[in-house]
Amino acid sequence: MPSATETATETAAGTSGTSVIRARGLRKHYGDFHAVQGIDLDVTPGECFGLLGPNGAGKSTTMRMLAGVSQRTAGELSIMGIDPEEDGPAVRAHLGVVPQQDNLDEELTARDNLLIYGRYFGLPYSYLKPKSLELLEFAQLTDKADTKADALSGGMKRRLVIARALVNEPQLLLLDEPTTGLDPQARHILWDRLYRLKERGTTLVLTTHYMDEAEQLCDRLVVVDGGQIMAAGTPQALIREHASREVLEVRFGTDRNEAAAEVLRAETRVHRIEVLPDRVLLYGDRADELQDAVTALAEAGRVTAPVTALTRRASLEDVFLILTGRTLVD
After folding, report:
1. Per-residue pLDDT tens over the stretch 186-204
2. How many helices (H) and strands (E) does the chain have?
3. Boundaries of each ABC transporter domain copy (predicted)?
């Protein structure tokens, strides 16, 4: 059976003969700490590729190596056919980076943040002045062009950081946790901007620990934990392979969940049961049938009556829980 990393590269190879990103055995060590442990990746032109995992999984470290700002300990890496350690400026000339933390110049206006950033690439003002207006419109910030960055909302700042990353018309855009800390409305606006970039043919690579974000945006993704790839594929394929169609979440009470789970394992036709500190997850094809079984067992006195019960479809967070034994936000 092929490993997760082999699956990731084989799937990509079948999609396209060329790769915007190609990594083999990518490693990053800090003394005795192994942040990234032998990752293989292939990212094809025009796709949105995701690195999904909890904080500390190695996502941001991988992104820093892809961006050419952190040297790898071992392995091979090429970005658009160039090794970033051999010719970092050539890579960065065609690369856009959206860091995890906003790093705008707070004292400058939205427009000036774009103009000055573009000068770092040696771009002339004759190009940057109309380009800045185009990017402000794309980011829905035209009316904030002369507003200082420190007066913008969190969602506006995030959109401005993305607009700034596009000033050199990059072929590849790296986004590290692009919507962390944003409210739902701001997240959806940002998703729309990223969809538009993808439609233009920009290759996107993003890290996230939001399962819905990965499902919405990513064509393919890898699930990362402990600096290693645990699984790879499309969101739908990963859910089909590792989870079930539906999930029943039941809360019996923190001191009763384990005992109830034991009874449910023995007396229900369930694919899998996971016990979390606050709830029990039952995986099956029909969550409503599982709920009927729980109700019948409670009425027979075999388990205590559940405090709450929720049915839903299986998600990428279930995939991660099944693979690693913990949730994405642990």
Report:
1. 999 999 999 999 999 999 9
2. 12, 13
3. 21-251
- Global pTM value: 0.86
The answer to whether residues 41 and 10 belong to one domain is: yes
- Domains contained in the chain, number: 2
Domain's final residue, options 183, 209, 234: 234
Per-residue CA distances from 265 to 258, 270, 275, 303 (Å): 11, 7, 11, 12
Task: Report yes or no: 166 and 175 within 8 Å, Cβ to Cβ.
Answer: no
Q: Which domain holds residue 221?
A: 4-234
User: What angle in degrees, to the nearest 10, is found between the helix axes of 125-138 and 154-165?
Assistant: 140
DSSP 8-state class, residue 27: E
- DSSP assignment of 261-319 equals HHHHHHHS--SEEEE-SS-EEEEES-HHHHHHHHHHHHHTTSSPPPSEEEEEE--HHHH
